[in-house]
Write a structure and sequence with these properties.
The protein is mainly α and 319 residues long. Helix content is 75%, strand content 0%. α3 packs antiparallel against α8.
């Protein structure tokens, strides 16, 4: 079992860096998608990230061996590849129809779906704290969509289609996460990501239009490169954060990612109003967003919170 280094300040910094990078990513992607299609953008992101990891692992002579996978390893790789490709492409298709903040908030359902899947696949326990967190999260979503709840439930508008696409992206991400979790028993995190990224890029190659990159403006070109490096740096910071801080606390910190997006959109809309538009959300909607973040954090911290309460009760009860 992995034991964190105890350098929690450094772990917190890395988790906050990851949340910041993931939070600003939809804003950059939104500008690139004005010219390029979602499949081609995804292909560039995966190819650049996977290529950088391949070069690094080759230099340190730690390229993964397929011999350690075993009989089921190939199927795990395939499941993870299809899950990640589906997640990236469907998310960008949804982002095309939604604001960055809305898309980032709906993505919060991904870890919840992984938790539910883990109950059946890995027989993990569902604590009372996680149940409370899930209830808070669902109430938060109801409040966030208060202005367009009728539209979501009664019609298939572009907004509804965008929400459904991002929800579907979160669902297929669960297959990627389950496959990756098993692959980490034979490869380290960098090896797993290199294999998955490069296989994903190969899978998408027949449907990409790389020459679309030539139609990007200089600013959009830099944003595309920033999106590619974001994938690599953010994941590296996330993996390193887990080495220095408990996974539940890292996950709880990452729950603030949608709030980072909302703040970043507000700032960008003031600086570049011709490119970035403010979120069309009322005060109740912003309150709902806060509840979604709180619910996500409670789901992540649920087991440790219950364990902490039990430990305190044990100390106060006389032996």
């Amino acid at each position: 079992m992995h034991i964190s280094s105890g350098r929690w300040v450094y772990g917190l910094f890395l988790a906050l860096l990851t949340a910041f990078l993931w939070g600003i990513l939809p804003i950059k992607l939104k500008q690139v998608l004005l010219v390029m299609d979602p499949v081609t953008v995804t292909w560039f992101r995966l190819l650049v990230s996977g290529g950088c990891l391949f070069i690094y692992l080759a230099l340190v002579k730690r390229l993964p061996s397929h011999k350690v996978l075993g009989s089921k390893g190939g199927w795990l790789v395939l499941m993870a590849v299809l899950g990640l490709v589906g997640n990236y492409v469907l998310y960008l298709m949804g982002l095309n129809l939604l604001s960055p903040g809305t898309a980032q908030l709906v993505v919060q359902m991904g870890p919840i779906m992984l938790l539910i899947a883990s109950l059946f696949v890995f027989k993990e326990r569902f604590s009372i704290g996680q149940g409370v967190g899930l209830a808070v999260l669902l109430i938060g979503f109801g409040l966030f969509f208060n202005q367009r709840l009728a539209e979501l439930l009664t019609s298939l508008s572009d907004y509804t289609a965008g929400v459904l696409l991002v929800l579907l992206a979160s669902t297929v991400w669960t297959f990627y996460a389950l496959g990756q979790k098993q692959l980490l028993t034979v490869w380290n995190s960098l090896q797993v990501m290199m294999v998955i990224y490069l296989f994903c890029a190969v899978l998408l190659t027949p449907w990409v239009h790389p020459l679309e990159a030539l139609e990007l403006s200089p600013v959009q070109g830099w944003l595309l490169l920033a999106c590619c490096m974001n994938t690599l740096i953010a994941y590296g910071a996330f993996a390193e954060a887990l080495a220095h801080w408990e996974a539940s606390r890292v996950s709880a910190t990452l729950a603030i990612t949608p709030l980072v997006t909302f703040v970043a959109v507000a700032i960008a809309a003031r600086i570049w109003p011709e490119y970035v538009h403010v979120e069309q959300i009322n005060a109740l909607g912003y309150g709902g967003a806060l509840l979604v973040v709180l619910g996500s954090a409670l789901v992540a911290l649920g087991p440790s919170l219950i364990a902490g309460l039990k430990a305190r009760r044990a100390r106060v009860v006389p032996g």
